[in-house]
Write a structure and sequence with these properties.
Strand order of the largest sheet: 1-2-4-3
Shape: globular
Distance between the termini: 35 Å
Low-confidence stretches: none
Structural class: alpha/beta
Helix content: 40-55%
Order of helices and strands: EHEHEEHHH
Largest sheet: 4 strands, mixed
Amino acid sequence: MSVVVRNLQKVVPLRRARLRKDADTIRHILGIRNFDLGIVCVDDRRIQQINHTYRRKDRPTDVLSFPFHEGLRPGKMPCSLHRDELNLGDIFLGVEFIMRQCQEDSLDLHGTLTVMIAHGICHLLGYRHETEEDWSEMLQKESYILGEYNRLTGQHLLPLMKRCHEDR
C-alpha cells in the first residue's frame, strides 16, 4: 500500500520523498503498511480554513487528521473487509505554521514534520487528547513510535504534544 504526499503550498520548501519515507517507517513500526495514507502539506490560509470548517477554530494549526475509519478505539487496528477500505485517512500539515514554531523554538523543520506525522497517525488510529487521561495515552503511543523511529534511523526525535487544555 502507499503513502501519497501532496504539497499544495509554496511558502516552505519541502522534500516529499523524505516525508513519504518517514511516514512509511512509522507505518512499519505500527504494523500498518498495508493501509494507504495521505499527507497534504498546506499553507496558513488553507489550514485555517480547514480548522474553521471542521473544528470551529478560526486560526492556523500544525496538524489535522481525518480518519477513514470513524470511531476507532485507541490501540485497535481498523478492520477492513475490502481492499478499498485499506485506508488510514488523511493528515493535513500546516507547514507554514510548523515552520514558524520551529524558528521560534530552534527546531529542525524536517524532524518536526516527522513528529507531526506520528501525531497525525495516532489520531487516525483513534487516539485523542481531549482529557488528561487521553493525553497521557496518546503521549505514551507517540513516545513508543518515536523511540522506535529513533532506533531505526539514528534520529533523536521527541513528541511535541501539547497538553489537552493548551489546544482548546
